Amino acid sequence: MSAPPEPAVPASHADAVLAIRGLDKRFGGVRAVADLDLDIGHGERVSVIGPNGAGKSTLFNVIAGDHRPTGGRIVMFGTDITGESTRKRAHRGLARTFQTSKLFSTLTVGDNLYLALCGRPGSVRRLRNANRDRARRARAAEFAERVGLGERLRTEVGELSHGEQRQLELVMALATQPRLLMLDEPAAGLSPAERGGLMDVLTSLDRDVTLLLIEHDMDIALVVGERVVVMADGEKVLEGGPDTVRSSDLVRRIYLGGAPDGR
Amino acid sequence: MGDEDGRLVVDGLNVYYDRVHVLQDVGFEVGAEPVAMVGRNGMGKTTLAKALLGLVPAASGSVRFGGQELLGASPYKIVKAGIGYVPQGRRIWPSLSTHEHLVMVGAKAGSRWTVDTVYDVFPRLAERRDVSGANLSGGEQQMLAIARALLTNPRLLVMDEPSEGLAPAIVEHLASTLRSLVDEGQSVFLVEQNLRFATELGDHILVMVNGRIATDLRSEELLADEEKQNLYLGVA
Amino acid sequence: QSDEGDEADMGSPDMDAPGEENGEDGDGEGTDAGDAEGEPIVIGRISALEGPYAAGAEDGERGVEMVLEEFDHEVAGRPIEVIVESSDTTPETAVDRARKLVEQDGVNLIHGPLSGAEGEALASYAHDTEHVTIVDAASGASTTTLSDPAPNYFRWHSEGAMWTAPLGPHVIDELGYERVATLAEDYAFPHAQVGGFLEGFCEAGGELASTHWVPLGESDYSSVIASIPDDIDAIFVALGGSDAVDFLSQAIDFGLEKPIIGGSLLVGSDVLESEGRVRENVEGIVTSMVYPPSSADVYEWQDFVQRYQEMFPDEGFETPSNFAILYYNSFKSLLLGIEEAGGVVEEDDGESLRAAMSEMSWESPIGPLELNENRQAETDVFISEVVENDGELTTELREVAEQVEQPDTPWERLDECPS
Amino acid sequence: MDQILTIGLNGLTVASLYFLVASGLTLIFGMMRIVNLAHGAFYLLGGYVAFSVLQGTESWSLGLLAALAAVGAVGVVMHQVLLRAIEHEDMRVALVTIGVSLILADQLLVYYGGVAHSVVPPDFLSGGMELGVAGIVYPRYRIFVLGLAILVGIALWLFISRTRFGMIIRAGVDDRDMVSATGINVRVVFAAVFFIGSALAGLAGAVGAGAFSLAPGTDVEYLLYSLIVVIVGGMGSIPGAAIGALLVGLVSQFALGYTPAVASIVTFALMIGVLAVRPQGLLGRTA
Amino acid sequence: MTGPDLVARDPRRNSPPDADSRRGWRRIFEGSKGAGIIAAAVLLLVAFPFVVPQPQFWVVSIAIRSLWLGVVALSLIWLARNTGMLSLGQMTFFAVAGYTVGVLTTQNDVPYVVSIPAGILLATAVGAVVALIAVRTQGVYFLMLTLAVSQLLYFLVLNAATLTRGYQGISNITRPEPFGLSLDNRNVFYFLALAIAAGAFALCWYVSRTPFGLALRGIRDSPERMRALGYNVYLYRMLAFTFAAFIAAVSGALAFFYHGGITPGAIDLLRSIDVLIVSVLGGINSLWGAFAGALGLTMLQNFAQAGWIPMRRVTLTGVVFVVVLLFFRGGIVDLPRQLREYGRTGRRAWNGWRGRDLGGDRPASGRDGDGTRPERVAVGSKLSPPGRSGPQIDDGTRSTRTGER
Ligand SMILES: Nc1ncnc2c1ncn2[C@@H]1O[C@H](COP(=O)(O)OP(=O)(O)OP(=O)(O)O)[C@@H](O)[C@H]1O
Ligand SMILES: Nc1ncnc2c1ncn2[C@@H]1O[C@H](COP(=O)(O)OP(=O)(O)OP(=O)(O)O)[C@@H](O)[C@H]1O
Ligand SMILES: [Mg+2]
Ligand SMILES: [Mg+2]
Fold this sequence. Notes:
The complex is a heteropentamer. Chain A is of the alpha/beta class. Chain A has helices at about 55-65, 85-90, 110-115, 135-145, 160-175, 190-205, 220-225, 240-245, 250-255, and strands at about 15-25, 30-40, 45-50, 70-75, 80, 95, 180-185, 210-215, 225-230, 235-240. Chain A has a domain at about 1-80 and about 210-265: P-loop containing nucleotide triphosphate hydrolases (Rossmann fold), CATH 3.40.50. Chain A contains nine helices and ten strands. A six-stranded mixed beta sheet of chain A has the order 6-7-8-3-9-10, sandwiched between helices. In chain A, strands 2-1-4-5 form a four-stranded antiparallel beta sheet, with helices on one face. In chain A, helix 3 packs parallel to helix 5 (about 160-175) and helix 4 (about 135-145) crosses helix 5. The radius of gyration of chain A is 19 Å and the shape is globular. The chains are: A alpha/beta, B alpha/beta, C alpha/beta, D mainly alpha, E mainly alpha. Chains in contact: A-B, A-E, B-D, B-E, C-D, C-E, D-E. Chains D and E meet through helix 4, helix 9 and helix 11 of D and helix 5, helix 11, helix 13, helix 15 and helix 16 of E. One magnesium ion binds near residues 45, 46 and 88 of chain B.
């Protein structure tokens, strides 16, 4: 816990969801996240974009607690959580998806969602018959319905196609009713039609939920994201509204390439 | 069909998972012109790609390449016959470093693709030479998967959603690289979700719906016709 | 004719008298009273055909075979039917097999087992099944007949402590070794062997330098050898089977130059006939054994050896092992007992058979056999020495200790002279 | 003093034998993710083959070679016939090898009986040699085992980390279908690995039978030892196996020399201790 | 997210309808059929001691033995199925319970009412302690650690002779007489064992269906995700291991009275492997498998020797084990289905086999059973060390064995 010189964390304003100061993550010689500051307020929608290997997923992993940072502090909902376990962060209302789906592949779609609903401590009676838990089962079915998996509640997840798994990945996070939702490339692997559905889900998200989104599809990243953070080589190179980013030469050069609108 | 040289001819292909009939009488051809396949999630595109490579058993049908029947052959023989494969989900080997991936697949000296030429196309990989495959970023892994396939110096390249997870600039770079390969005479069969990328590369677009090929269009046709897009792909 | 039968019948259950009808498989409760005349008499046998003693057990089977031939597969006018169950020398398996014999095959007579722990387990099982008479085949743990002996458990050979008891005085008086170390595995049978040896040895004025208890199943003795003190006259080693082979060859490798005196299993046929460097080192080892060297001219022993060699010219050992003679003696005792009881076995739950066996005595190839009040025989012990004869290793008799008595209590693991 | 030295040397040489046995196990595991629990039975088989050939031909080195080849072949047959179809199910594969081990050991018992067998080394390897330290005379054969172990260790390490063959195998473990889909015939490659790994068990058996006799039960003993060695060092790592063997050899020998009563416990305690601190073994990889 | 009609998913390609749609008479019929089978089974089990020809043998040597052996195997199967941890150490807890009861009662005159619960409790506590280390390991490491613990106990018991009577073990006990019914009576013992086995089974079955049980399976598939959802992965795995130790301990107490004591032989390596064989033989994917396998092995051990099959017992056990693993992957409980499958695809499988011989690597066209790529790992776990599917690997690697993800 003896972290190097601690950057001062500003006295959090009441509605700060996330305040990150001087965050650093090294893997051997690679500095995946470098001295990063980031503030996110209540109900904000923030997109994170950047070239491959910029450190976006690593940033998520550090915020979620899967990786210990090599430097810096993270304050979430007004509490310093830098050393806290993944589990405790989840209890605080953090939910995330993984860039490569991490699902319970030998369980059914329904059971996957049911487990997502039972994650937080509280009213769950862990030793009751799970099949009798009508209320949660119904909620699980609702969530499956939202991505068109309503008919496949009893299908084993390992048998879903790639895109279907990506969609389940998304609702797993939604089902925990998070206060802070972090999505790592939710549109990857989705067909254009399903992307439409994803947009619907994202735009209809409750305003109480704060959203942090990594996405390479600019039609989503720059439409859903009200603020965009551009990363490159672990650093934050630009931050601003979608239009600023769209018109930035830097972003075009390092990320978007010739075409004016990504995909 | 006298000159099947370098042509992929698929005919009446049927694949089941258990009793689920996933591919139903699929037939198409890929010649010099690149062909792309689109379709919604779960329609059977990946299954088709795997069946071509011998990675899923087919119940019936035929897959001929350069006049040679490949259905039933081992994957390695199919690759030897000249088909390269970029799998969906990348399938990198975590035990190997980036460089080891390329060295292992190897390439005969003097071939079109060697470890060095691949590094030229994907400089990012050269920077990550000694990083374990598992620790590459998603996009880096995707590049590696493509590079790996190129190193087998295939006559036909089968790619399953190669643009997934790639930054727009890289996608563009990839598209132009592939385009120039096509111009050099490389055959390509591409499964894609990214309509732009698919239409840019594929002259022909096949649309897969529920395990059948619903239609075969020229890419301009599909691009121009919103109604068709809506009908087949659900793009509103 | 018998040659062919032996191998084939080894593991199979029914060794019927040739030409006799198969009769019943001992079904029902097996206690059908009434006219037993001509009914086959069913004997269940538990032999260690699996596990580390398989070779010994197989030789034991040859002993049984000899008895059967002697009796022409018939006792007291009833054909003998044998059901062999194989154990792996663990007590659990032995009891499981015994249960199967008693409960499914309905036998009233059990012959077996081979190892000490099995013997103990069966002796305690005997308490539960009073109508069954158990005759021990070759096991040597002391407690079996010492602590709470079962009235239906009979042992026609002496036990571990008795086998080594006469060796102590012999070592001092005849060999002049006054200070020894002991090396043995750490479980009941070697405890008894060391205990038996030390009792006589210390009483005769001997001095114990150190004891080395090796964990069961260890085959590397090199470091133990390194820690044996230098100022001793000899080392007493109670190991057997492959452990003995390993110890003896490592003793050469690591330059253990002290004379070796041995427990009863140290130089069995398996050691003498095993290949390798062991041969160089065994000459001169003095051991106390339950049976005489093949050359010894005692009792009817020579006849026995000859008959063994005639019956098993190829597959057997060159000379019978201890298991052959122990199985022979015990099985023959059982048959003699049945004869004595007039073939009455089932009707009275074995009462008359037990009475007969407790009373009877007979001359076995290795000396007179008779039971004490614990139904435990007190037999002769043969102190022998390994000698080389025309390049062949054999044992030679040094002394016969007659009718060694059973101690009062079983020996525990000793680390100093017993008081 | 010279007692400590002798015991230390014992530890070292016993460790060499453990390493020889364990290297085959760890090789197969490291490259194919297969835990071959018939490895102990292979050891036994190797010893018996060497014994029989030595009996027949009077040639010790021929016996060693025969053990190597025969056990390697048995390994390949087992792999091709029983394991190949279920190769990707690690647990099932391990269980099948337990079955094979039961059958093989039991059949060897039928054939060779329960008598102890040993493979007598040739004259130039028997007897003791002066070490020139504290006047210790040490068995020549054990020094030979030590040398052999070092040789095998170095060869294996180079083979795995430096050759393309090694890469193919490592990749094949991660995702076999994908290796196949780059035009490599994985089947042949895997068969070769199985041959080498099994042959090492056979060699170890033939060599080990010169120091410790073979008998029913030897198989389980060596299986357990090699598993402990490999687990302590980290599955799949050749240097790990070397370190594991050293630790196990030294600890067990010193325990045997000084507190024999607990000797059987210490090796297990050692392993539990190591796993408590490093669940993946000393040199095992987490990622 | 529904698209236009043409694109709507083809119902034929969906999985079977879920339970809700299975209403009406079909549901009732299926329910009664299930109840019928259960009733018949109960009847058979209750009548068993009174209808068999040689009750002493069939009830004691076969039935009761299968019951207690089944309960240990049950603990193994439950753990493997729900957590993917394959334990070779269940006999440890079995023996701790047995020895505790034995030492307390035979050497310290503690009444059984105290010593039996004490034994089970102590064994469970030992389970919890072992769990502290064991659940941190995975795959073979776990297998070996549990094995090491049982070997350690084996040698401890051998050496602590003053307490455990070493190699001889504890024997010659008097069996308790609960409510004046002597356990020496085989029928009393049988029904007691039956009740305990049924209780243990019901408990295991129930726990599997609770959110707790479901969470265990979630952890087996993806511990990272479970953490991200807010579960305490370590604690869950520990509790699961401890629960399994408890079940094994119950069996240990039962077997103690069956054998009339306990010896170190009860926990040697071969017994631990026996438990594994039982589990596989019966079918490691089903809790019933424990009892089916126990019955199977007991019969095998009793009748192989009877000369019905011309093969040594150990060899025969090995052969049966391998055949079951390769060709009857679901074990005995899955036998009917498997045989039907073979019947149906017999011809295809035959062709497939030949096809594979010719075609090399390529899986044959028949699925399942004939060795083609099955979709699920039998035990639900991987022997690989943490590295392969460990928490750090984040991309594309887990697809290896579960197919496309
Ligand atoms: N566990 C690790 N060990 C070593 N290097 C790592 C590890 N994880 C990530 N990296 C490296 O850190 C860099 C950032 O990776 P990260 O996954 O965060 O990129 P990303 O921005 O999400 O890229 P993409 O858009 O391609 O997914 C990469 O170069 C990657 O190789
Ligand atoms: N291993 C499997 N077992 C059973 N069903 C499967 C399996 N793999 C895929 N399926 C099913 O087969 C259908 C086709 O899957 P496939 O992966 O070919 O779709 P896809 O068109 O590639 O979809 P996506 O765009 O999402 O990758 C899906 O409904 C899927 O659920
Ligand atoms: Mg990423
Ligand atoms: Mg796909």
